[in-house]
Amino acid sequence: MELPEDAYPAPSDVIAYMKRRAKDWKWATFRQYQASLVCRYEIEFERNRDPLFQQTAEEIRSLPSTDCRSNRDPGHTSSRKRKGIPRRDYDVLVANLANPARASDYSKRAALWLMAGLATGLRPCEWENARLSEDGRTLNVLNAKATNGRATGISRVVPVDADDFPVVRAHIESLRELLASGHEFSVIQKGCTQAIRRTCAALWPGDDKRTYALYSARHQFSANAKAIASAEEVAALLGHRSTRTARRHYAPRRSAWSEFRQVQTAKPTASMQAPIRRSTPRNG
């Protein structure tokens, strides 16, 4: 299958852009963009079996990071952002996004997305194929990073608390509605991302640390989970095989909301925890 001439951006342009910008990014930033793009093209390949997408994913995965800046270099704006979102900011942000008097259609959907993300910890791109079980107690998710042994398998089962079920179902129905009307998932995600960015800029002008995103909900889910669950349980919920990844790359336990230090939430089953690889932190 050939892409339309006006398709944008072309896979070759994406690869060229990654190569060109590598020298401007830290290794961690490069890896984040690299993983996101690989995930996107692998999803496209699974959808239509066009080998171009599989080839592009492999080329992006093999890009070297040797030209990246050291992680010790002073950070740019993106690296100064908070991982996670404080409860007060979350409440204000969701309330403004959902305000029927001022919110756009994407703003309201972004509010749902943040709430569902906080309840489940899914990566934004994983919602495209997420399915609720018939009883509504679990969410079946295709792992976005199921390559090179990084995930617990092709898919994972995420428990859904009874109190969170209505918002998770509403978010999935919101996505299905737009997808059924012909919207691409990437367009929906972009619309919600932009709605959050605009709202943050209006609420906290000039404050880079309060420029939140859809992924902020996953970070906060991680922090909240770390306050009440073991390292293996947190890794299973996030879809990572290694506890080290969940420990190092997500919001820390100290960022957990206070109520999660006392309240128990749904936890993964023993079968979910079985593939988790324990990693011992260095220096204690």
Describe the structure.
The chain is mostly helical and 284 residues long. It folds into two domains: 11-67; 84-273, Orthogonal Bundle (hpI Integrase, Chain A). It is built from twelve helices and three strands. The protein has helices at residues 11-21, 27-48, 51-61, 77-80, 87-98, 105-120, 165-180, 185-203, 214-226, 231-238, 243-248, 270-273; strands at 131-132, 138-142, 155-159. Strands 1-2-3 form a three-stranded antiparallel sheet, with no helix packed on it. A hairpin with a 5-residue loop joins strand 1 (131-132) and strand 2. Helix 6 (105-120) runs parallel beside helix 9 and helix 9 (214-226) packs antiparallel against helix 10 (231-238). The model is unreliable at 269-284 (pLDDT under 50). Residues 263-272 have a biased composition (Polar residues). GO terms for molecular function: DNA binding. Keywords: DNA recombination. This is Phage integrase family protein. InterPro entries: DNA_brk_join_enz (IPR011010), Integrase-like_cat_sf (IPR013762).
Layout of helices and strands, plus pairs?
Blueprint: H1 11-21, H2 27-48, H3 51-61, H4 77-80, H5 87-98, H6 105-120, E1 131-132, E2 138-142, E3 155-159, H7 165-180, H8 185-203, H9 214-226, H10 231-238, H11 243-248, H12 270-273
Antiparallel strand pairs: 1-2, 2-3
Helix pairs in contact: 1-3, 2-3, 5-6, 6-7, 6-8, 6-9, 9-10
Region (Disordered): 63-83, 263-284
Keywords: DNA recombination
Biased composition (Polar residues): 263-272
